[in-house]
Amino acid sequence: MTGKIQWRETRSPSLPRLSLHHEVAGRIGSLIAQGSIKPGTVLPNEAALGTEFGVSRTALREAIKVLSAKGLVEVRRKTGTRVRPNAEWSMLDPEVLSWLFSGNGAPAGMPDLLEVRKVVEPAAARMAAHRATSDDLAETRGAYLDMERATGDLTASIESDLRFHLAVLEATHNIFMKPFGALILAALRSSFRLTNSNSDLYKKSLLRHRAVMEAIESKDGDHAEGAMLAILKQTSKDIATQTRVVAGGRATSRSHKRSKNGSD
């Protein structure tokens, strides 16, 4: 098993340094959450994993404690550390969500995320249409204008898109809505990274976001709810489109590598 899994990950020097055991927990957690290590798998023993990461057994044990507390693994004296089914993971834990949605492409949890968003966000848009203050309207419009200005800039478009959706949630003045948005932050960024990477799809999405903004400004709850649902339905289609594009690109890359190796 240790020969097939890339346990260590190259870190960007710009990223903040975490404690050693949190770095190890994050790497193993990401491998589990993204499906590289399947439920039911028994992890290598402490000595083998410690060698893979170049850390002490103490640091490794602390990392396993973190994963165990979040429901990703169970530790048994005789059988070792086993990966638990994802139904037993603490899915509302921000770190678990960040591990689940930190990879490229569409994570396995994306359909479930979209289902939750279709339940919450259209209702939130309706509520915002009836409850938004002048400050809320200014924030929503400011976020939308930032989305327009960010066309062609993937990083800026993701952050302004995120700001728009969080602004709608906050405009509900429901005490659980803003924390909900903050909770699924990593998941939303992953979703926007897929859809906003296609400039044509992004430009079309601007029209739908504008429709939500204008409905909220007009205090039209029905229209706001319908416009937000339209965004999310199209998002489902856009993610499917982009996932096929990414998968096709990877297949082409593998084919080129095989051809090159065969000609050497």
Mean pLDDT: 87
In CATH's first tier, which class of the largest domain applies? Mainly Alpha
Strand order of the largest sheet: 1-2
For the sheet with most strands, the description reads:
2 strands, antiparallel
In DSSP terms, counting alpha (H) and pi (I) runs of 4 or more, how many helices?
Answer: 11
What is the 3D form? Answer: elongated
**What structural class do the secondary elements suggest?**
mainly alpha
Task: Predict the CATH topology of the largest domain.
Answer: Four Helix Bundle (Hemerythrin (Met), subunit A)
- Ranges with pLDDT <50 over ≥5 residues? 12-16
Helical content band? 55-70%
Tell me the strand percentage band: under 5%
Radius of gyration: 21 Å
Query: How far apart are the termini?
Result: 30 Å
How many domains in all?
2
Q: How many E strands?
A: 2
The string of secondary-structure elements, in order, is HHHEEHHHHHHHH
CATH architecture of the largest domain: Up-down Bundle
At the fourth level of CATH, the homologous superfamily of the largest domain is GntR ligand-binding domain-like
